[in-house]
Write a structure and sequence with these properties.
eight-stranded parallel β-barrel; binds 2-phosphoglycolic acid
Length: about 270
């Protein structure tokens, strides 16, 4: 049985303000207690300093970034480097989110280079892969996911067990049209098989695979029940403390998750 610990990460996207962030983090800190899964929040980069302070003195919620530069430093106006993120206590970085692939034209190679930068700085990359609706309708899901994954594996395969892969079908993001959990599980197994073929069964067993795309408190448990789904990347629902807290609790009671101290009686029998 794998020892993979579940991860629930909140992608705030371009949302928030000093006041709203403070209220959200305060509510989250009260609501999540000491969760039995890893939890991260990924605010816009200008708020990382604020979040570092708001999250100080606790270990329940880690700090994540939404992107990082593929370069080490220098003349790259507007970019933020991995070492700068590290300065602010960032532990995770989302890389290659479909919104960046779509709106900023990020390529598979750029994504792979960003993953390499994150790993070199000791930041855990959460690499997003996933097909568009058109690609799914044309039967290209497997092809697209494998292509996106290949570049990452090619440059970073040696560190795949320090990498999180998020399967996020583009058509499920922000649409309320979540992917069927069985189908998400099927794609996860494709990803794990691909990692196994390239780097062996232990690497495939170690890599954490999370699902993203319209995850809510109502559907989260169905994803977490799949032994190959190791958590969730949550957009909209991560902006509401109640909803995000409920998703975290669903991960904590999922099969394979260690029972939180004092919560055994809440487990289904
Ligand atoms: P969503 O976003 O939960 O709002 O669908 C997920 C994501 O973009 O990571």
């Amino acid at each position: 049985m794998s020892e993979r610990k579940k991860l629930v990460a909140g992608n705030w996207k371009m949302n928030g303000s000093l006041a709203a962030n403070q209220a959200l983090v305060q509510a989250l800190r009260q609501g999540v207690g000491q969760p039995a899964c890893d939890v991260a929040v990924c605010p816009p980069s200008v708020y990382l300093g604020q979040l570092q302070q708001l999250l100080a003195g606790q270990t329940a919620i880690a700090l994540g970034a939404q992107d990082l530069s593929q370069h080490e430093g220098g003349a790259f106006t507007g970019d933020v480097s991995a070492t700068m993120l590290k300065d602010f206590g960032v532990r995770y970085a989302i890389v290659g989110h479909s919104e960046r692939r779509q709106h900023q034209g990020e390529t598979d190679l750029q994504v792979a280079l960003k993953v390499r930068r994150a790993l070199a700085a000791g930041i855990t990359p959460i690499v997003c892969v996933g097909e568009t609706l058109r690609e799914r309708e044309e039967g290209l899901t497997e092809f697209i996911v494998k292509r996106q994954l290949s570049a990452v594996l090619h440059l970073n395969g040696h560190a795949i067990n320090e990498t999180v892969v998020a399967y996020e079908p583009v058509w499920a993001i922000g649409t309320g049209r979540a992917c069927d959990p069985a189908e998400a599980g099927r794609v996860m197994r494709l990803i794990r098989q691909r990692v196994a073929a390239a780097f062996g069964a232990p690497a495939a067993d170690a890599v954490r695979l999370v699902y993203g795309g319209s995850v809510t408190p109502d559907n989260a448990a169905a994803y977490f029940a799949d032994p190959d789904i190791d958590g969730a990347l949550v957009g909209g629902a991560s902006l509401k403390a109640d909803a995000f807290g409920a998703i975290i609790r669903a991960a904590a009671v999922a099969p394979g998750a260690p029972a939180p101290a004092g919560a055994r009686k809440e487990q289904p029998t």
